[in-house]
């Protein structure tokens, strides 16, 4: 009887695992004397594979780790056609380490969250992108935790917390799309909220834009939750949809990027969602303090 129960349980676990999807894929190792050299090697692989590299990020206080950010023209077309919060999928993030380890954002995971109900329509394009990344960077195994793919279209960390389209994302309404882009670009250039720009993607025909934002304490908080190995979860984003400036809520964006982090780890950064909101308000040109929110 016990053996039958054990066999049934094993089958259940294996079946669940087969349906789970990971946020990152470990690629083939890259060579380099330091993390900057590894990033340069990865940049070369991406360019040779048909991608455009639009930024690099080496967070302060996180020695030996970095991110290379790229775009793919075909996927940008899909993002533009989907519109709205799908703009968060404009950039492809590749994490690098000084020891040559390479991990990159898994299209099958992230675009389920970004395209939501429209994923089925664009699944073919996502698979093409995944194959293109595998050819450029390799594909050893999935890493960074896992999530049931059926949960990603309406993902939230737990009941009562924010989804990708939360009203709390909205930071400011300005006069026009061009003015919104100019505002974000200008404030990042000035270092508003102790930030700097890592990349920008602007899709004027779709009236969409997204900016990768380096926050001054990225290296600090990611170490507090022991997620250095999932460095491809950075940088954070601020976006423009038509004339609205917004940013994904911290309790959504951080949980989506690090699905294997438990509540105990999140409590180490309980003030981070507030801090991110204050920072993004500064980038959006809004002078106001965030309300008190935490992970509880």
What report would you give on this structure?
This protein has 296 residues and is of the alpha+beta class. It folds into 2 domains: 22-147, TATA-Binding Protein; 167-284, 2-Layer Sandwich (TATA-Binding Protein), CATH 3.30.310. The protein is built from 10 helices and 11 strands. The strands form 2 sheets. A 6-stranded antiparallel sheet has the order 2-3-4-5-1-6. A 5-stranded antiparallel sheet has the order 7-11-10-9-8, with helices on one face. Strand 10 and strand 11 form a beta hairpin. Helix 4 (107-115) packs antiparallel against helix 5 (119-137). The N and C termini lie far apart (42 Å). 44% of the residues are buried.
Main features:
TATA-Binding Protein, 2 domains, five-stranded antiparallel β-sheet, 296 residues, alpha+beta, six-stranded antiparallel β-sheet
Average pLDDT across residues? 91
Biggest sheet layout: 6 strands, antiparallel
Sheet-strand content, in percent, reads: 15-25%
Number of helices: 10
Tally of distinct domains: 2
The geometry reads as globular
Instruction: Examine the secondary-structure arrangement and name the CATH architecture of the largest domain.
Output: 2-Layer Sandwich
Radius of gyration: 19 Å
According to CATH, what is the class of the largest domain? Answer: Alpha Beta
């Amino acid at each position: 009887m016990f053996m039958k129960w054990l066999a049934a349980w094993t089958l259940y676990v294996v079946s669940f695992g087969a349906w789970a999807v990971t946020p990152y894929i470990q690629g083939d190792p890259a060579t380099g004397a330091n993390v900057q050299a590894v990033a340069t090697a990865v940049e070369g692989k991406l360019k040779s594979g048909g991608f455009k590299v639009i930024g690099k990020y080496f967070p302060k206080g996180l020695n030996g780790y970095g991110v290379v950010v790229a775009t793919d023209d075909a996927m940008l077309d899909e993002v533009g056609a989907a519109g709205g919060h799908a703009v968060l999928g404009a950039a492809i993030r590749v994490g690098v380490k000084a020891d040559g380890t390479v991990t990159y954002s898994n299209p099958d995971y992230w675009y389920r969250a970004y395209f939501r109900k429209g994923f089925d329509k664009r699944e073919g394009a996502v698979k093409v992108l995944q194959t293109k990344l595998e050819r450029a960077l390799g594909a050893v195994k999935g890493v960074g935790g896992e999530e049931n793919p059926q949960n990603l279209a309406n993902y939230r960390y737990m009941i009562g917390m924010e989804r990708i389209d939360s009203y709390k994302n909205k930071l400011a309404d300005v006069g026009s799309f061009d003015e919104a882009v100019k505002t974000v670009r200008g404030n990042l250039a000035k270092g508003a909220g102790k930030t700097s720009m890592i990349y920008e993607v602007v899709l004027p025909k779709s009236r969409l834009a997204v900016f990768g934002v380096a926050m001054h304490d990225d290296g600090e908080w990611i170490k507090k939750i022991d997620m250095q190995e999932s460095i491809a979860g950075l940088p954070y984003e601020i976006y423009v949809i038509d004339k609205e400036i917004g940013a994904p809520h911290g309790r959504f964006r951080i949980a989506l990027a690090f699905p294997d982090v438990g509540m105990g780890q999140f409590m180490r950064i309980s003030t981070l969602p507030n801090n991110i909101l204050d920072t993004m308000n500064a980038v959006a040109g809004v002078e106001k303090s965030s309300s008190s929110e935490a992970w509880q």
